[in-house]
Amino acid sequence: MAENKTQASDASVDAFLEAVEPERRREDGLTLDRLFQSVTGWKPVLWGPSMVGYGSYHYRYKSGREGDFLATGFSPRKSALSIYIMPGYQDYSDILARLGKHKLGKSCLYINKLADADLGVLKELVQAGLNDLNKLYAVTPS
User: Where are the domains of the chain?
Assistant: First the structure.
């Protein structure tokens, strides 16, 4: 069975974040790094070329596919900040209603700029996602 394309690396998260353009996206990325470290207490790890992850988990699907992936994290993409909450967002409507301007994907939350979001609510969301993920799979700190 094929391995995940997105793997943890030894690349420097600090160097990655310092190179993010434009400046506003870089500043938002640095703020998110501090926020995620505050919530998790874990050091960031770069997954693939552009995902900053905190913790990891090993999954095994009924199909037999298995692998490791980041437990939570973000990517300061050009179009928007992508926030990863691995159990998905279906059970977080009460938190999301208080977050501020955002869009949803299956396990991605898109925010154009952090000024559009309540960072206290974002912390709550990250913690809730980790708690729920840990009920499904054992989360390993990074």
Answer: 13-133
For the entire predicted model, the pTM comes to 0.94
CA 79/CA 56 separation, integer angstroms? 26
Q: What would the two tokens of residue 115 be? A: 């000024």
Could you give the residue ranges of the DSSP H alpha helices within 3-137? Answer: 13-18, 23-40, 93-99, 119-136
Nearby residues of 123 by Cβ (< 8 Å), 6 or more positions away: 35, 38, 39
Residue pair 41/94 in contact (Cβ under 8 Å)? The answer is no
Rounded CA Rg of the chain? 14
Range with lowest mean pLDDT among 23-32, 86-95, 109-118: 86-95
For residue 14 the two structure tokens come to: 């600090």
φ, ψ at 106 (rounded to 5°): -65, -55
Provide, for the chain, the percentages of residues in helix, strand and coil under a 3-state DSSP scheme, each rounded to the nearest 5.
35, 30, 35
Q: How far apart are CA 32 and CA 119, in angstroms?
A: 9
Class of the 13-133 domain? alpha beta
Given a contact cutoff of 8 angstroms between Cβ atoms, the answer to whether 29 and 116 are in contact is no
Residues pairing with 13 in the sheet: none
